[in-house]
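cron nightly-structures :: item 1 of 1
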Amino acid sequence: MLLSAGAPIQAAPKPHFSAEIGSGYCFGNGFRFSDTDEKGEVIMSLQKSLGKHRIRNFTPIILLSFLVAVFAGSGLLALPVSSAEGVPHSYLDALFTATTSVCVTGLVTVPTVSAWSGFGQAVILVLIQIGGLGIITCMTAFLLFFHQKAGLGQRLLIQEALNLNSLSGILGFLKRILLGTFAVEGICALLYMIVFVPEYGYRGVWISVFHSVSAFCNAGLDLISENSLCPYSQNSLLLSVTSAEIILGGIGFVVWWDVIRVLRERKQKRGRCLSRLTLHSKIALSMTFILLIGGTAAFLILEYRNPETLGPLSFLEKIQVAAFQSVTTRTAGFATVPQESLTAGSWLLTLILMCIGGSPVGTAGGIKTVTIAVLLASARAAIQNKEETTCFERSISKEATRKALGVVCSFLIIVLLSALLLAAATGADAEDVLFESVSAAGTVGLTRGLTGTLNDIGKLIVSATMFLGRVGPISLAIVFLKQKNKGDGVRCPTEEVQIG
């Protein structure tokens, strides 16, 4: 698309591959508007100020928004009114809890169920919801609620905060995210009440709402017990609803609306629904299915006779708990079995699943399923000596491959540096330290018991790891998007190096 002073905006060429989300495109190399109320406003804004906003780097704003939320939350949690006993917790514990809430991780130094008052728990719930949806998303939603218009700068900021490739239809997409989020959380909260209200009375309503928001945002915090969901490891309803929320939150909002679009079109267009999904959705759904089924089978085999995990359970209960372990390791953090009791094989499998995490543009963390799939497809192309990286009969750009490689490398650097510092600060076992670092960087929230024993330095290291794990890959992805078309025109001489 070409823009010049006084020149009309020309229609963009149809992208080679795009994904229709609701009423507009969220992927592609051009702008397409279907919302008549946005078309004129956005085109005028583009003509007047696109050049100014296009060079602006929004990454510091996104990072700063997370920091503001963390420190504001820690200030509230450090107040005496936030403590269950009326005596304020140490600021480091308040800071750690605010960080784990905003970064939707779930690691805690003090038990959520017993350490915080109703006010403190409400603060944690708000921080979880803000962290799950994203601070920029929540701020924009607040403006829209009071009928304030979002300018082009705000739209570009939302685009980058959600890591989308196009500006078109972005406000409609944001509204659908909020509507879908609150609908899922509300329905699941009602289902949780079937379990919690008979047991806890009126307090069960609050527990249900808290647990629903925490599960959908993949936070892993709960108000049930100090042992997470271990007392409910045989409750099929609770585990099923929690698993569904974790998967829906982690699969990514883009996939939601793509699936809904295909289902709406199936009456007008014949053919398999899967073939009409976008490449992003195909990869996210396929990887999620493979990891869930494969993880369930692997945990079932590895823990089948372990007397401290699946051993005492019936066969159906073993499948249920193994399936939940496969789901929760993908950044949710709820536990139905003690993680320190896992076999060596299950420990390693848990590390792998925690590293991968969920899918992009969702509430999950980790490297992300699509990122791993792009790297695997690139490796396959290299092994087969092909110049083009393909998946589902579609080409994947070199920019996407480089971006995926950068995200993986940054994640591994965060994990290794965190593990090294944490080992030096605590002197804990290497298995526990590595597990803790991966869990924090992947915003998972599972622990082998190390979190509660951390000293002050250890708390700061884990807090920094959670923060970097949450915003680091997002920021790096934005940097790649900003700089992919930049260059100084200078090419360095090429020289061969030995690989392998």
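cron nightly-structures :: done
The chain has one domain: 61-136+174-260+276-483.
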